[in-house]
């Protein structure tokens, strides 16, 4: 059994390139049997793999004294192997209240956030978790019962996000128990794993044993194979989605995404489903919170929704159908009002935009563009305001007679409704001088008599 588990673990590690010689690996250890065996096996393999090994433990703050005892157990266990262990305590209950999620979901998000911090702080290359073949089988069954597609059926990936690795995915719970007995390894029992109100626990305690007894004794291994097969399909579609977004979408400011709707219409439904999730992920949303029906609703709406109509997605993502493109952004921009002196510069809050203004000679003044406005210094005030749009805004656009409402001008300039609050409006305190990125006004125009000018520029900071 010893050689079998070590062989399976090493084989999976090498097959998926989880660990390279010289890597520093953090083992996530809860104190349960799976994670205890994980740390023990990795400790025995570290010489053959040429890696450095440490441990990490998070008390979720859900089990009071028992949680503290788990932390002490893990610290002692790591020390007995001569390993460093980083431990923290979190308030998962408060996190769930603030984010409106289940305890299971909140605990997972907090846990991976903690592990990511440890990874970066310790300068490690990966974090190993103790997921087993049984965890894989349970996850597949959960996804089947909830109506998942192929991406969901791929379940627990051997490597996730480039830094989370699952070396024990070929090892069953029975093998874990036998290994622990052979080496005299003790572990902690989490009583919440017995809570039958938790969906996964009911699958583990009732459905899997029933399937093993009445239908297929090797159901765990069979479901794990199903996950491997569907993972290959999902990875292929994910590659297609990556190529699609590279060719037909562009990210602006890290918060705005524009996608070509003609290309979307030509994409197969299977690819569209992946793309909806990728769009959410690209904008920093949690795609795991998207239910199948939400993906289908979004897929049906994209390209068919009325032009200018805004649709909400979970995770604070909003999308707007335009004539030829879909515009998405995360969150909404808080109204802003900033004072701008001459010369001077201000950063537009919540964006990668800035507005700067300088004074110079009319003889060397550059030409005006959408991103640059040039004014007669003697004809405009010297203290400006850079702000977001406000109700009742009107201006006299350069080249046109009379005034128009900013709302009507935004419509004429085809500015997406989602982005209008991000557009900097430059005023002298009484009138609009320039809608940055679009048009300056007829106020303070340069003439043949102009000697000094004020040059205002809208700059876009490179997010990299």
Contiguous runs where pLDDT drops below 50 for at least 5 residues: none
- Annotated CATH architecture of the largest domain: 3-Layer(aba) Sandwich
> What is the overall pLDDT average?
90
Classified by CATH, the class of the largest domain is: Alpha Beta
Record the strand order, biggest sheet.
3-2-1-4-6-5
**Beta-strand content bin:** 15-25%
Straight-line N-to-C gap: 50 Å
Topology:
Layout: H1 2-15, E1 24-28, H2 33-49, E2 52-59, H3 64-80, E3 85-89, H4 92-99, H5 103-122, E4 126-128, H6 133-145, H7 150-153, E5 159-160, E6 164-165, H8 173-183, H9 199-214, H10 219-248, E7 249-252, E8 256-260, H11 261-266, H12 269-282, H13 292-301, E9 310-313, E10 317-321, E11 325-330, E12 337-341, E13 344-347, E14 353-361, E15 372-376, E16 383-387, E17 394-395, E18 404-405, H14 406-412, E19 425-427, E20 432-435, E21 439-440, E22 452-460
Parallel strand pairs: 1-2, 1-4, 2-3, 4-6
Antiparallel strand pairs: 5-6, 7-8, 8-11, 9-10, 10-11, 12-16, 13-14, 14-22, 15-22, 16-19, 17-18, 19-20, 20-21
Helix pairs in contact: 1-2, 2-8, 4-5, 6-9, 6-10, 10-12, 12-13
Explained architecture:
The chain has 14 helices and 22 strands. By secondary structure, the chain is an alpha+beta fold. The chain has a six-stranded mixed β-sheet with strand order 3-2-1-4-6-5, sandwiched between helices. The protein is elongated. It starts with a helix and ends with a strand.
């Amino acid at each position: 059994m010893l050689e079998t588990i070590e062989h399976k673990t090493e084989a999976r590690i090498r097959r998926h390139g989880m660990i390279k010689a010289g890597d520093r690996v953090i083992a996530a250890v809860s104190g349960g049997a799976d994670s205890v065996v994980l740390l023990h096996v990795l400790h025995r393999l570290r010489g053959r793999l040429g890696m450095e090994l440490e441990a990490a433990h998070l008390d979720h703050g859900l089990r009071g004294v028992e949680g503290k005892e788990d932390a002490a157990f893990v610290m002692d266990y790591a020390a007995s192997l001569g390993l460093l262990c980083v431990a923290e305590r979190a308030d998962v209950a408060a996190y769930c209240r603030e984010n409106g999620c289940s305890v299971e979901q909140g605990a997972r998000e907090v846990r991976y956030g903690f592990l990511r911090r440890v990874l970066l702080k310790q300068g490690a290359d990966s974090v190993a978790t103790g997921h087993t073949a049984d965890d894989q089988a349970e996850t597949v069954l959960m996804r089947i019962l909830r109506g998942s597609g192929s991406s969901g059926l791929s379940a627990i990936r051997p490597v996730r996000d480039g830094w989370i690795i699952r070396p024990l995915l070929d090892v069953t719970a029975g093998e874990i128990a036998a290994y622990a007995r052979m080496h005299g390894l003790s572990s902690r029992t989490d009583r919440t794993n017995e809570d039958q109100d938790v969906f996964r626990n009911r699958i583990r305690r009732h459905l899997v044993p029933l399937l093993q007894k009445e239908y297929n004794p090797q159901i765990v291994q069979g479901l794990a194979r199903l996950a491997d097969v569907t993972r290959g399909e999902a990875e292929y579609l994910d590659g297609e989605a990556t190529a699609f977004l590279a060719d037909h979408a562009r990210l602006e400011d890290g918060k705005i995404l524009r996608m070509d709707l003609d290309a979307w219409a030509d994409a197969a439904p299977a690819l569209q489903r992946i793309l909806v999730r990728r769009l959410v992920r690209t904008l920093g949303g949690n795609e795991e919170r998207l239910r199948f029906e939400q993906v289908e609703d979004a897929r049906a709406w994209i390209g068919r929704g009325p032009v200018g109509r805004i649709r909400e997605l979970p995770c604070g993502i909003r999308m707007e159908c335009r004539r030829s493109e879909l515009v998405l952004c995360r969150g909404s921009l808080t109204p802003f009002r900033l004072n701008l002196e001459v010369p001077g510069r201000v950063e537009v809050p919540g964006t990668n935009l800035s507005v700067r203004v300088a004074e110079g000679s009319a003889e060397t003044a550059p030409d005006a563009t959408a991103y640059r406005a040039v004014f007669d210094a003697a004809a405009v005030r010297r203290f400006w305001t850079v702000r977001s749009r406000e109700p009742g805004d009107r201006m006299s656009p350069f080249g046109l007679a009379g005034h128009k409402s900013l709302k009507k001008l935004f419509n004429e300039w085809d500015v997406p409704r989602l982005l209008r609050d991000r557009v900097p409006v430059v005023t002298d305190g009484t009138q609009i001088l320039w809608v940055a990125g679009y048009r300056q006004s007829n106020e303070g125009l340069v003439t043949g008599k102009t000697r000094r000018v004020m040059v205002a520029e809208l700059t876009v900071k490179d997010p990299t």
